[in-house]
Write a structure and sequence with these properties.
253 residues; alpha/beta; 8 strands; binds zinc ion
């Protein structure tokens, strides 16, 4: 084994640990850089690439708004079929992830009638053929026009994940087509985790970061996250802990 191989092997062992520690530091740094914000009375539509992103990124915000009687709807863009642990068959994964989403959202106070599945193939959003892309945008436009949310929540535009960044672009385009007036807020999932040392967040992005205290609903959010049993076991060590914190970070567009 050459010295280069030794270094590679060492990085494979300590890499995830460094990643976890750096991500944790950056996420806490954001806490100090962000502006405190109170939960608003505006209705909200949360767009989620996969079944769990909405709860991880916005679970506290959703629970807070619902406890105040503020309407919240959630739209899932993909079917989540490739987030499949070995113990679940390919035939059942889509149904299981949908049921987990319904269960998690019930804990947060969102009814099944306010939960929508656009069911695109997991991992396909960045490279949708033109006609399929138009179909998806039309679906999103219909949702936006029928609900007219005061706030729209999307994954961050630099979330370092194909489906997540594509969701941002699709929703941004759908808002423009829909003609509705709404406030766009971006939630981070992977951006501070994947290659956190090199993440592409500028100081001007930091200036647009807001933190929402979710202490009063923190336990409900944790319970909702834990209802995603098909996902929680396969996520990186330390990754979930960030979403158990008593605040959530959003970036105003
Ligand atoms: Zn996701």
């Amino acid at each position: 084994m050459g010295s280069r191989q030794i270094v590679t092997q060492l990085l494979m062992i300590i890499g995830p640990k460094i990643c976890s520690i750096t991500a944790g530091i950056l996420y806490r740094f954001l806490y100090f850089k962000s502006h405190p914000v109170a939960v608003s009375q505006k209705s909200a539509m949360v767009f989620s690439p996969h079944q769990d992103d909405e709860t991880l990124g916005c679970g506290g915000m959703i629970a807070l708004k619902r406890s105040l009687g503020v309407p919240v709807e959630v739209v899932f863009l993909t079917d989540g079929q490739y987030g499949r642990p070995e113990w679940i068959t390919p035939e059942t994964i889509i149904e299981i992830r949908q049921q987990e989403a319904v269960n998690a959202l019930a804990i947060l106070g969102v009814a099944i009638s306010e939960t929508h599945f656009v069911n695109q193939i997991d991992g396909s959003l960045q490279d949708l053929p033109h006609s399929q892309r138009q179909y998806v945008i039309n679906q999103l436009v219909q949702r936006l026009q029928s609900f007219t949310p005061g706030e729209v929540y999307v994954p961050h535009s630099k979330d370092i994940h194909g489906d997540h960044e594509a969701t941002y672009k699709l929703v941004q385009e759908a808002i423009a087509v829909s003609g509705i007036q709404t406030e766009l807020l971006e939630y981070p999932i992977w951006m501070l985790w994947q290659d956190p040392i090199f993440f592409d967040l500028k100081f001007k992005d930091m200036a647009n970061a807001y933190r929402l205290a979710i202490d009063s609903v923190k336990d409900r959010k944790k319970q909702a996250i834990e209802s995603y049993t098909s996902q929680t076991s396969s996520l990186p060590t330390g990754f979930l802990n960030r979403f158990f914190l008593p605040y959530e970070i959003f970036f105003k567009n």
